[in-house]
Amino acid sequence: MKNQNQEDEWRNKALEKINREDYFPAKTKELASACGISKQDYAEFRNMLKAMKREGVLSRGKGNRWILAGLQNETPSKKKNTGCITGRIMLTRSGIGFVTPEDPSMDEIQIGETYLGSALHGDTVVVRLEQPRGRNTRRFGRVVEVVERASPRIVAEITEDGFARPEDPRNPFDYVVEGEMPEAGNKVLLEIITWPGEAPQPKGKVLEVLGPAGEPDTETAAILASFQAPGPFSDEVKHEAREVARLMNEPGPRLDLTKTLAFTIDPERARDFDDALSWEPQEDGGCVVGVHIADVSHFVRRGGALDTEARDRATSIYLPERVIPMLPEELSNDLCSLRPDEVRMTKTVFLHYDAEGNRTNFTIHRSQIRSVQRFTYEQVKVLLSDEKAAAAFEKQELLKPLQALNGLAQSLRRRRLDSGSIELNLTEFVVLLDENGYASSLEKVEHDFSHQLVEEFMLAANCAVAEWCTTNAVPVLHRVHEEPADDAIEDLASYLNGSGYPFTPPLRRKRLNQIVDQVRGKPEEHGINLAILKSFKKAIYHSDATIGHFALNFRHYMHFTSPIRRYPDLHLHQELETCFAATANKLPQKMRRPVEKGGKALEGLGIHTSERERRAMQIEESVKDFRRLELLNRQDKKEFIAIVTGIRKFGVFVELKDFFVEAMLPRWMVEKAGYSTREVTPGMRRKNEASGFHLGQQVRVKVKEIDLKARICQVELIEVFDDARSSSKRRNS
To answer: What domains are defined for the chain?
Structure first.
């Protein structure tokens, strides 16, 4: 130690800082910096703090942070920092942050751009509340500490002046590259070595060069890297996938359905086939529908390398050019795929219906099938609507099952919708690529009766298995969908009323379905359906069977029918395996022995699989968004008809017809929920020039710039069409 006087001075400084009303528990380096300790004196200052700890003056609290002795079991808010709250921060592109507190009972906190400190999007931060500004009642705060970073890896582009600039505009810091510098214009995967706020210039190390910015392969790789998508399977997983092939010769007790006329119906470009259907008439005029699902659990045993990897991935990710599968190809495309003319292990749900289409019973079996036909949706549509095509079909014995299943499916669908199930009409499409891997066209996915045929029996099988698991208290994940929040429905009502479709809270299923029918085929159809969808909560996986599924209006529901590509389905199959007796191929109606509860582990699995599902959807949508921009960028014309799809407080959104590219109209501000709009023009603060856009309104826009590197389309408004679409007002551009 320097001398006793120096030590006393340091002690007094440390205690002064720690005793301040605004002190937030600090780590050693943070406290040393606050006390003005030099680098040369840091080691001695640290030893002094340790001595104070031994003396019982100081203690280390949560996160190894210095606090007064006796307060180690108290949170900072219980000490003196009552204005400090921990939560996760999400940043907008405009630079404003919003912190969601860890305490779910607390409201969101807004963070101004100048109060963000070194916080980045997704970080866990500590926020100190500030006084409200003016009459604003929103809670404002200042980031005082970053507790945990969202990810140490980011995607960045190498700039001409030799920095790595993050592609996400919510990360505004340029990074110094340590080691070999890639060529300018390349996107890279960067591992952060020194974070913003820790040094004058943050630093990073290049882990992988993804390729030239703006190229399709590069942008896909960048999206995958930014979401930390899974890479190739490990050697251990691939080895186990080869080893379990021997289990094809060890089927165990199974119902032999290899003589049953079972068949699959899938998209033309389907890569795996995990469900098949069969139909058998009954003497009383009813029928038995067989829903046969690939028994992945026969090969993927709990706790093995395959199971661990599948659990971590939780779902397959489908891209235009390839699939990132949950399971290796040996299983997903071979052992577990219900390919025609090959015996495959399955779990079968037999659904018994009477002559009126009422389900009277169901049973669940271990089974084996041999699919006799691989149908595509288009083939089924033609066979059921074209008599000549049906007459020429070589397997005439399959026509009657197809016709009967279609009739029953339509009856089940009508009943489901009449009972309050909400079905939205949102346009789906697939991006087609040319031989060089570039986007060539968009193909709309038709949700016609051939799709509905399969969908209704998958829903019916999921419900039946959910009923059985609930009755027998089996610890499995349910697919739950909670009712929308009251404020979300109030916002939706304002949105619909402003768009010409009267709707008054509370939510009524019948009225929502009426509106969906009213907008069918109209320009505003997509926008209205999207607004309804956004008002709903997200469906998740949860251990609580009592929540139910709001949109489907099902009391009990779970995912059973896609174990090749969804882990909750596979987990359910594994759990059912424990319910079969050693020599049984059929589940009893009522289990005689209690099933062990899932507890916290099951709750954690529900959170994990729900998060992985959201990640997969974000990846898929991000790649499709880029591919649509790529396709639009190759067009010679620059003016397009667009539809107003969103009217929000911060602007008006339009979607370019035929390309599904969304852009925000510049200079337009939305006043309130009534959707009156004002144009902000150069040299003027605001000027009333419009009576207000409305959802579904057609406009003409000019594409000013498409930035494939940033994946952004900029447009300007050229023309606004009236409701009759017969005349228009030309705008100065």
So the answer is: 4-77 (1.10.10.10), 83-148 (2.40.50.140), 153-213 (2.40.50.700), 235-481+541-621 (no CATH), 486-536 (no CATH), 635-730 (2.40.50.140)
